[in-house]
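During the first year of the project, the team set up a workflow for recording each protein of interest as an amino acid sequence followed immediately by a discrete structure-token representation. This format lets reviewers and collaborators read both layers of information side by side without switching files. As required by the reporting guidelines, we include two representative entries from the current panel. The first entry is reproduced here exactly as it appears in our internal archive.
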Amino acid sequence: NFAHLVTKEPQTKEQFLVEYLKSVLGLDWILAELRKPPQDQHFIVKCLKGYNALIDKTQLERKPFSNDMLEIQPNGFLMELLLLARDLCILANCKFLEKEHLIRIKEKKFYQGVRYELTVATICLLLGLKLTKVNTSLLEGEKIVEFTAYHHETNTTLYVEAKSRHRDGVLHYESLEKSNNNKGEFKKLIRNMMLKRKSGQI
């Protein structure tokens, strides 16, 4: 698949999504990250830099799809930006995206977890499920699931707890103890998931 970029208005879908993501994150935050040493920058900002480098490379090669449009082969950085922006756009439109989500997205240590949580929520919405946020004020101090997803046709409520296995050196994660015990890590994730509350209160 290819992405198409235009050199003047109106924007293409891909350009709209990237600009939407920038507006949600905020220019001040992006500029603050860019002032950090490269190794300390947030993965999203690294993706934005990779996206800009791809555009520059394409423009230098000048492979016009039409008079005012460039056709590019998306790299991993651009794909991450497009998928993240799409998820945030869908969740915001469905009134599910909260300020707390954006705060966690901007924090490197929380990024992988919240990114996976929002991906799962988006998939549920695209499947036609109705999402309900958990009222954490009633359950202070308890382990709770991320949200519930209701399927109308089968009258089924799913209790959704998104877990993503952290891998050393991926998405800002650095483990204190190096381990190749994947089976043990998965068991720990499942065990922690089963501790989450799923009573009739949520």
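The second entry, processed by the same pipeline in the following quarter, appears below.
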Amino acid sequence: ALQKKMEEALKESKDLEKDLKDIQKKLKTQQPLTWEEKKKLEQLNKRQKDLAQKMEELQKDFKQKNLKEQEFKEEEERIVEKQQQLQKMYEELMTDEMKKLMKQMEEMMKQQNKEEIKKELDKMDLNNKDVEKELDRMLEMYKELEVEKKMEAAMKDLKDLAKKQDELSKETEQKTKSNEELKQKQDELNKEFKDLQKDMKD
């Protein structure tokens, strides 16, 4: 779910970047702001606000996910380090800067100052490019982290299975259980192993 949200935020950031460029081109003329231009700028500002909100939600979701995972399982040190690095990147996603730029843009739109609006759009453009780069980096890092976690869990499960298999071999040698019970246990272990193989492929 978190990966999907990150992909959506990245797509929205790229779409915004494209629309920002279109508006910048159209604002080249010196005439006063037209009604249509004003509407487009308002929409752009609203979408920018939505994106900032999405990023704040991502930040919260990631923090909660980490806390939940730390509560239930001991992670390897390198995985914990990567999670902390990603958390730091989330916290530095410049949503405050985004909000500041949007506020300034609203002010310039009230004053209908085309030159100042163009300046604010340039700043927004640079800000969006940085956010896009960061989101891209974070998405890749998040995917790597999830793969590592999956591998870590699979290794633990394999160790547990090997231990169970070892115990079963001893029971078979010592004939402490009936053949029927032993066969049932072996079937269960085989099923666990197949499930694990399937999980690793997914």
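For the second entry, the following points were noted during internal review. The chain has six helices and no strands. The chain has a mean pLDDT of 84. Both points are flagged for discussion at the upcoming steering committee meeting.
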